[in-house]
Amino acid sequence: MAKSTQLIDNEVFRAYATYAAIVLVKMMLMSLVTAYFRITRKAFANPEDTASFGKGDSAKKFLRTDADVERVRRGHLNDLENIVPFFGIGLLYALCGPDLSTALLHFRIFAGARIFHTFAYLIPLPQPSRGLSWAVGYAVTISMAYKVLSKALYL
Amino acid sequence: MAKSTQLIDNEVFRAYATYAAIVLVKMMLMSLVTAYFRITRKAFANPEDTASFGKGDSAKKFLRTDADVERVRRGHLNDLENIVPFFGIGLLYALCGPDLSTALLHFRIFAGARIFHTFAYLIPLPQPSRGLSWAVGYAVTISMAYKVLSKALYL
Amino acid sequence: MAKSTQLIDNEVFRAYATYAAIVLVKMMLMSLVTAYFRITRKAFANPEDTASFGKGDSAKKFLRTDADVERVRRGHLNDLENIVPFFGIGLLYALCGPDLSTALLHFRIFAGARIFHTFAYLIPLPQPSRGLSWAVGYAVTISMAYKVLSKALYL
User: Fold this and answer.
1) What is the arithmetic mean of pLDDT over B102-122?
2) How many CB atoms lie within 10 A of CB B104?
3) Per residue in C55-96, pLDDT tens?
4) Do B13 and A4 lie within an 8 Å CB cutoff?
5) What distance in Å separates the CA atoms of residue C95 and residue C98, rounded to the nearest whole number?
6) Which of A91, A154, A155 to mutate to probe the C interface, most C CBs <10 Å?
7) Radius of gyration, CA atoms only, chain C
8) Which among C5, C20, C48 has the least Cβ separation from residue A88?
9) Does C101 touch chain A (CB under 8 A)?
10) Interchain proximity B130–A45, CB inside 8 Å
């Protein structure tokens, strides 16, 4: 029987697992930031969420959108649109046997760019801070996709 | 040559594959629920989707948002935000060689919490039903991420 | 020590890696299409994004939604809802050791259906073009999930 633990002994795969876990946890933290802003701004999407703030019409006024909440939600969606492809393409890339140093370079730049992107979105920093950090992460993922397709291509 | 079928002989990986497939299929079912509510509530997002209900202005009135449709869509997005990190971190976790019983505990609690979350969102149940089921799934994923980072850490 | 490069020597896994990378890159291209429409339609979601179009009130008018931008964003979200489950379930499916020809059939139909879906959404083509291409991709993923559950089931 094969032990699935063998893969985790590979250094490239360990590096991938580390950075993939970091950016996925970072993405999950956006849920907590959304919850924080929903509660402090009293801006909810579901009637049942406002029940603790009063009954009937007095609760209805908390069913609203708030600029800060929407900003965090856009950041969260942007994470889904970018971190999920990184996870998928990065996994295939790690299995393609790249050099450890090249792989680490990809993973570190991506993680750094996405963490910076979150701060650029939430503070917010003036453009093009957010745009550039988005583009860096995007380019890293495309670079890994190129490696996967050139190594594994089987149409 | 390595057979990729070896991994699937590992019991932890089989358990992961089972629960990951279940929650991903559950997430996909949200598309059908959305379609059901869009058709029964006659609330569409695209002009071309309303063509079968009439021409011109008589069709335009179906281009609207509906409270039930939006509720399902929020549930679907919440699944994306939580089930996708579970899939990713759970995969890395399964490859880290955890005890079978510990792994099963994580997978079963997560799947149960997310299935309950869907009912809590769609019925809807009074809070904190939905909030708690969300938190349980979130905590399970963080617990697996902790294991991955402590086992595989390679920065 | 296991080499993680072994998996990539398996033909089914290579086929999976190829088509998974193709549809993930296709999904990422939606970000560029969104950016293109946001810039040409001058319709932005963040105040800091409009700064280059003027100061104060003259920039505020670009903080708006645009029908073309929203259409691309719906297409992007639909990709997340469908391509991400394909990636996850397809990975487990590829590890279940299916026949190469059966696996290729699944991957090719899915990739073709989703590429057609994007054109059907963006042009847009009259229904049921988009609905049918969505259903084909959905059915392929469910078929793979059935294979995974019947092969790996461990509850």
Assistant:
1) 97
2) 19
3) 777 778 888 889 999 999 999 999 999 999 999 999 999 999
4) yes
5) 8
6) A154
7) 20
8) C20
9) no
10) no
Give the DSSP letter string of C52-121.
GG-STHHHHTT-S--HHHHHHHHHHHHHHHHHHHHHHHHHHHHHT---HHHHHHHHHHHHHHHHHHHHHH
Is a pLDDT exceeding 90 seen at residue B4?
no
* Per-residue pLDDT at C4: 44
Does C1 or C92 have the greater pLDDT score?
A: C92
How would you label A37-60 residue by residue, b for 16+ Cβ within 10 Å and e otherwise?
bbeeeebbebebbbeeeeeeeebe
Residue B30, judged by CB atoms within 10 A of its CB (0-12, 13-18, 19+), counts as buried
Are C76 and A81 in contact (CB < 8 Å)?
Answer: yes
Identify all chain A residues contacting B9, using CB atoms and an 8 Å cutoff: 1-2
The model carries a pTM of 0.94
Task: Categorize the per-residue pLDDT at B139 as very low, low, confident or very high, splitting at 50, 70 and 90.
Answer: very high
Q: Which residues touch B30 (CB under 8 Å, ≥6 apart)?
A: B72, B75, B76, B79, B118, C81
Least CB–CB distance from B148: residue in A21, A28, A49: A21
User: What are A30-88's pLDDT values in tens digits?
Assistant: 999 999 999 999 899 998 888 877 777 777 888 888 999 999 999 999 999 999 999 99
B27: tokens are 């997430």
Sequence-distant (≥ 6) Cβ neighbours of residue C117 within 8 angstroms: C75, C78, C130, C133, C134, C137
Residue B42 has pLDDT above 60, yes or no: yes
Structure tokens at B131: 């909030």
User: What is the chain C residue with the closest CA to B23?
Assistant: C85
Answer for the pair C128, C91: CB distance below 8 angstroms, yes or no: no
Nearest to A22 by CA among C49, C136, B149, C99: B149
A4: amino acid identity, one letter? S
- Residue where the block lists tokens 């009954």: A55
pLDDT above 60 (res C102): yes
Degrees to nearest 5, angle at CA C83 with C79 and C89 = 155
Q: Measured between CB atoms, does C31 come within 8 Å of chain A? A: yes
Would an 8 Å CB–CB cutoff place A4 in contact with chain C? no
